[in-house]
Specification:
26 helices; Thrombin, subunit H; alpha+beta; 8-stranded antiparallel beta sheet; globular
Length: 711
């Protein structure tokens, strides 16, 4: 991977403050790997082997795929990632007659490899600092909305210009430190990704939601995909004429695995972390964002599960939706428990009090920073005042498919006829929403959200909902909401192609609210959205400027770890295979085994198993993937690297840069990682490479994949 790098001076300065050898915390930008003194930590290859801006390195074997991370493990574009990363793709090709989700999918020839619909493979091609270009002329006293508009517009314009100058690449600008530093990333995007091997659900999702975010784990959370390109090597949509992609680098598999206290490192694309945020942000998350979202997702999971109970085709359609909601819901519950267990808000308040005292002790510092923390507190108090209304706004936008369709249609029809897009093109866009429309589910979500809006306090009322209520409260309000919901779903033209085509030919002022009540409700709601969005943008713009000033104050104070928060760009983290103590008198060892898989078996979901696995268990002593020290086949490993969402599928590499596992989760105590990392409790979990090879070879009989990987 060829890189042109001049990381912003602020990042270099901030990272220079951190005593890297003192801790294992950090999702490091690639440019900082050479600063970490990894040889003393246990690395046995040169850091340039991991990342080399002037040549090929291990980073060239890493990609973003299906919302997670993947790694190339053969010269023919074979990608190893998680089962839960491939979940949506395999569910998408499953039917009650060919239930690949339940039974697994295996392509024994390249011709049998099935398209992973909607999946792309993104490989970081290069990146460079663009802070000066983004922040040119930006001042602290700018209007917050103008500031956000200018920064956002420049980020988009720069990315589009780079794409024009680099055909075949996709570009985006990432904010590294809020209001201070920005980096342009260029990605090569492969649009033809196919399923190769996905193990049965009883292997790939063993333990289900009961074991999710927990240790010990015994799930084979892995899958194989393959990237394809046009014969000339250029990115291309699916075609039978495409050929396997030839990555610049692929990872070597280490079939002997790892053992306790071995050095390991990960490369991947972690999502958002929030370690440089204030106590006000943490408190808002603890009181509002996390519990309200978890409760809403819990409700949705119940509705969706019930809807698919006696309909396997619908159950398959809903499966990836339910899995995503369940994963986030349990993660948020874990974060809540961690915030409270660690008293993290109180600790952050104490840190900020010390910082404010230091600021107030000097006239120069007071002039620069005395107002920063108090003003941030004011903004979060403003946010709390309308928090419930804003939460319901977000969920109405996201959770009710028919309402999304109505809003898009109202926007289309409000344009003069001569300015409208082609109706056919609009209908194609509308179909994106309709794919998620399951009326009996949608109606329940819509009614629940309207009922919650009906009891908002006077300062948070939603006018469009109040018009439905017409002054009613209590039981009568619920009856009017139920009647409205039943009416709009029964009478909507949005799901009738003939009526919809006729509707789209009309002018907005020719449509009667009585004929299309949901369109007018959606239109009225949009006006309220716009007002709320404007206020939200103002707050974000002001917070961005304040956080930049707060960072300056912390730098001057000199007592904070300034490793930049993760932001979905490629990062490096390292640590050791290591257990931990989650509670008094309890110690968790860092490796689980096939024996543990069998011990958890109940014969019922989520602890059911393929019958053939029991025979393999009885013969495990003869398996070539047996660990001679454990006397068993390893299944999962635990390590203290710093990871978060997006690291799903990240390769776990040993001191020689060889693949020893595939990251898929964190332990329950480590869900708090997004806000705070600690060697004491932060542990990540991978499926051991030996279990991957064992299942692929001995359960699936797919030795040809091992041969392709050079095992």
């Amino acid at each position: 991977m060829k890189h042109s790098i001049r990381f912003a001076a602020v990042i270099i300065l901030l990272l220079a403050i951190v005593p890297f050898g003192a801790a294992d915390e950090g999702m490091y930008p690639l440019s900082e790997i050479s600063r970490l003194d990894l040889k003393t930590k246990g690395l046995k290859i040169e850091p340039e082997e991991i990342y080399n801006p002037d040549g090929v390195s291990l980073v060239d074997a890493i990609c973003i795929v299906g919302g997670g991370t993947g790694e190339f493990v053969s010269p023919d574009g074979l990608i190893l990632t998680n089962h839960h990363v491939a979940f949506r793709a395999v569910a998408g090709i499953s039917t009650p007659e060919n239930d690949y989700l339940e039974n697994g999918f295996l392509a024994r020839t390249r011709e049998e490899e099935a398209p992973a619909r909607g999946y792309t493979c993104r490989i970081t091609d290069s990146y460079r600092d663009v802070s000066d270009e983004i922040l040119r002329g930006i001042t602290q006293d700018m209007d917050p909305i103008e500031r956000m508009d200018v920064v956002g517009r420049r980020m988009g314009e720069l990315a589009r210009r780079e794409e024009t100058e680099n055909p075949g690449l996709e570009c985006e600008v990432a904010e590294m430190f809020p209001g201070k530093s920005y980096v342009l990333f260029r990605y090569r995007v492969i649009r033809d990704v196919r399923l190769v091997y996905v193990p049965p659900l009883d292997i790939g999702n063993y333990g289900g939601e009961e074991d999710n975010w927990m240790w010990p784990r015994h799930t084979g959370d892995f899958s194989f995909l393959r990237a394809y390109v046009a014969p000339d090597g250029s990115p291309a949509s699916y075609s039978e004429h495409n050929v396997p992609f030839k990555p610049k680098r692929h990872l070597k598999v280490a079939p002997k695995g790892v053992h306790e206290e071995d050095f390991v490192f990960l490369l991947g694309y972690p999502g958002r972390t929030y370690r440089h945020t204030t106590s006000y942000f943490l408190s808002y998350n603890e009181d509002v964002t996390l519990p309200w979202t978890a409760d809403w997702y819990d409700f949705q999971i119940g509705v969706l599960t019930e809807a698919g109970k006696n309909d396997r085709a619908l159950e398959l359609k809903l499966s990836s939706w339910i899995k995503g909601l369940s994963n986030t819901m349990k993660n948020y519950r874990g974060k809540l428990k961690g915030l409270r267990r660690l008293h993290l808000v109180d600790r952050r308040v104490e840190d900020e009090a010390r910082l404010q005292t230091w600021i107030e002790a000097d006239a120069g510092r007071r002039a620069k920073w005395a107002d920063v923390l108090p003003r941030i507190g004011d903004i979060y108090r403003e946010m709390r005042a309308t928090a419930r209304r804003d939460f319901l706004f977000r969920q109405l936008r996201r959770s009710v498919a028919l309402l999304q369709m109505a809003g898009a249609t109202a926007d289309y029809m409000r344009k003069p006829v001569e300015e409208r897009d082609d109706a056919g093109a609009f209908l194609t866009r509308l179909q994106r929403f309709s794919r998620y429309l399951i009326p009996r589910v949608d109606k329940v979500f819509f009614q629940r959200l309207l009922e919650e809006a009906a009891v908002l306090s006077p300062g948070q009322r939603i006018e469009a909902v109040d018009k439905i209520l017409a002054g009613a409260t209590g039981t009568l309000a619920r009856q009017r909401i139920a009647s409205f919901v039943e009416s709009v779903y029964a009478r909507t033209p949005l799901t009738d192609s003939v009526r919809l085509a006729h509707l789209l030919s009309e002018k907005w002022d020719e449509v009667s609210p009585a004929d299309a009540p949901l369109l007018f409700f959606a239109d009225a709601l949009k006006a309220e959205y716009r007002r709320a969005d404007s206020e939200s943008t103002r707050r974000k713009g002001e917070l961005q400027a304040l956080r930049a000033r707060l960072l300056d104050a912390k730098m001057a104070h000199g007592n904070v770890d300034f490793i930049p928060d993760a932001n979905r760009t490629i990062r490096f983290t390292y640590g050791y295979i290591r257990g931990y103590s989650p509670a008094d008198a309890t110690w968790y060892s860092p490796v689980t085994t096939l024996t543990g898989v069998i011990e958890k078996y109940t014969g019922r979901d989520p602890f059911d198993l393929p019958e053939t696995l029991f025979g393999l268990y009885e013969k495990r002593k003869q398996s070539r993937f047996l660990d001679p020290i454990l006397g068993d086949v390893p299944v999962a490993i635990l390590y203290n690297t710093d990871t978060t969402g997006g690291n799903s599928g990240s390769p776990v590499l040993n001191a020689l840069g060889e693949l020893v596992g595939v990251n898929f989760d964190r332990a329950w105590e480590a869900t708090i990682n997004d806000y705070q990392w600690s060697e004491r409790y932060s542990r990540s979990i991978a499926v051991d490479i030996r279990y991957i090879l064992f299942i692929t070879s001995e359960l699936a009989g797919a030795d040809f994949l091992l041969e392709e990987m050079g095992v």
